[in-house]
Write a structure and sequence with these properties.
This protein is an alpha/beta fold and 400 residues long. It is built from 13 helices and 17 strands. Helix 2 runs parallel beside helix 8 and helix 9 runs parallel beside helix 13. A seven-stranded mixed sheet has the order 2-10-9-6-5-3-4, with helices on both faces. Helix content is 38%, strand content 15%. It has helices spanning 14-24, 34-46, 57-67, 85-92, 111-123, 144-151, 207-216, 253-263, 266-284, 311-323, 339-344, 353-361, 373-390; strands at 5-6, 50-54, 75-79, 96-100, 131-135, 157-161, 169-170, 173-174, 183-187, 200-204, 221-222, 241-242, 289-290, 297-298, 304-307, 326-327, 362-365. The structure holds pyridoxal-5'-phosphate.
Amino acid sequence: MTHALYYGKQTIEQADIEAVTRVLRSDFLTQGPIVSQFENQLAETLNVAHVIACSNGTAALHLACLGLNITADDEVWVSAVSFVATANCARYCGARVRFIDIDPLTANVSIQALSDMLQQAQQQGSRLPKAVIVVHLGGSSCDMQAIHQLCHPRGIAIIEDACHALGGHYQQQPIGNCHYSDCCVFSFHPVKSITTAEGGAVSCQDPQFAQRIRLLASHGITKDPQHWCGDTAGISPGYSEQQLLGYNFRLSDLQAALGVAQLTRLEPWIERRHQIIHRYRQAFNSILDMQHILPDSYSAYHLAIILCQDQQQRDQLYQSLAQQHIFAQLHYMPIYRHPYYQQQSPEDFAAYPGAESYYQRALSLPIYPQLSDIEQQQVIDGTLSSIIACRRPKFATSNR
Ligand SMILES: *Cc1c(COP(=O)(O)O)cnc(C)c1O
């Protein structure tokens, strides 16, 4: 083994380097014309009315919560298994976070668990959440239609954390078109579908919501006469006004140029990820299960998630791969297990059988467009030899 393999990695080509250096030689490093170009191209890709680019996926989640006016008086319900930022954004607004159990095979929010929580809240007369945040784990869509059917009639807003899912589809539509949600959030961190180094975006259909997010991402200040609400009698040219407490969550032109260049290769990159998954599935066929994908979902395959028999087999595999410099990773420990969230509200882990089962079994193997066939074969060989060394057939039954 000559070099280490990681679960994800960016692809940078000559066109990316040229796009970025062009901006370096131009008049604007930030707040120039390239950010809107990136936003427009992203909106076209997502088949959505509005895209607001911002500094990273975490900022995009924070903006989504601020945009929905989530406050310390609110509850936000979040899928139990995700990156912590999916829950932290609600905490930034002071809201109470409650977790929704996942389906242990799809790793996405369990519709049954969400439905049970809603019913229980109504029976007990306790509060309904102002919003739910669901994550398309590994790039594979949640059952958005069912989530919408549960939330919409109750006036509960829906945020899609699509940080894994750029390039994925649901019901033949791009994830991010917000057909079943209020807004959708993306990240362009180097391990994601495309990168701007750091970067993120919010997509939405509602023009007023989009304008609010735009304000919040740039100090709450507007220069646009159409949107002024202050006393503009006798103002001087160059007038701008702050309307609400915003942040500096902007993306720079330097980063947006990388995004524009990367976005042109999104489709072939996702196709390559599908090829890699297909090969893993064939190789592991009767020996190892992989993440289950909904029939009406075309995954962006941010992650290649295998599901081992149990924690012992998973931990052995992790170590055995690491010895061969193949660095698999677990995505993710359930958020409620983190000390910060335990301090917020101690949880009985047994209340989340789906998340606990997934947490014991899951492991993400290397997947990215430039992973070569030879490298993938090394991962497959390393995985199979470790699993077979464990010598326990997949469908073993205890009473025979
Ligand atoms: C990457 C990621 C984020 C955060 O994005 P950053 O750009 O790193 O801030 C949020 N949620 C999920 C599910 C992610 O994978």
